[in-house]
Amino acid sequence: MIRTVYIYGSPVLRKVAQNITPDYPELDKLIDDMYETMSNSDGIGLAAPQIGLSIRLFVVDGTPLAEDDPTLKDFKKVFINAQIVERFGEKTIYNEGCLSLPGLHEDVERESKIRIRYVDQNFKEHEEEYEGMAARIIQHEYDHLDGILFTDRVSPIRKQLLRSKLNAIAKGKFSASYKCKIGK
């Protein structure tokens, strides 16, 4: 089932999400819904707060980028109760977008490598390192779990210049090809 994507201005996007337990209701269905919603919206990542749930869960699927970056060929994962334990490597800049900020893209600087601890869909524990675009995708989605949007990571000058665009999005003045809502 395709879920509604919550847009900038929705309070749920600014909350710190809560860990979940293996008995979270209909978790497998939720994960399937998140993948379907992400795919339908042409996204490569989706965090639970973006569909109105303040829980520490996000899904990623980098395979649409595999033609340009072969390391993403099989990069399709579920991250539950994730904690980035280390960010390292050189800082790189990439033009990011977000389903919760339709039509907005900005250059964001992030570390090129991360180490993350999480549990998968079966609540099996993992600690893994990622680099390059995979690390960037994870960091972007992980930020949603802490109530951070990519626009929070742009320079102070860019933030000032974005203010009117962000206010317009929060007032519903945007165009998106997927189900959206402001609220919750």
TrEMBL record:
One of its GO terms (biological process) is translation. The active site is at E141. It catalyses: N-terminal N-formyl-L-methionyl-[peptide] + H2O = N-terminal L-methionyl-[peptide] + formate. It holds the Pfam family Pep_deformylase. Its EC number is 3.5.1.88. Keywords: Hydrolase, Iron, Metal-binding, Protein biosynthesis. The keyword Transmembrane helix does not apply. Fe cation binds at C98, H140, H144. The keyword Protein biosynthesis applies. Its cofactor is Fe(2+). Binds 1 Fe(2+) ion. Removes the formyl group from the N-terminal Met of newly synthesized proteins. Requires at least a dipeptide for an efficient rate of reaction. N-terminal L-methionine is a prerequisite for activity but the enzyme has broad specificity at other positions. Belongs to the polypeptide deformylase family. This is Peptide deformylase. It comes from Tenuifilum thalassicum. The lineage of its organism: Bacteria, Pseudomonadati, Bacteroidota, Bacteroidia, Bacteroidales.
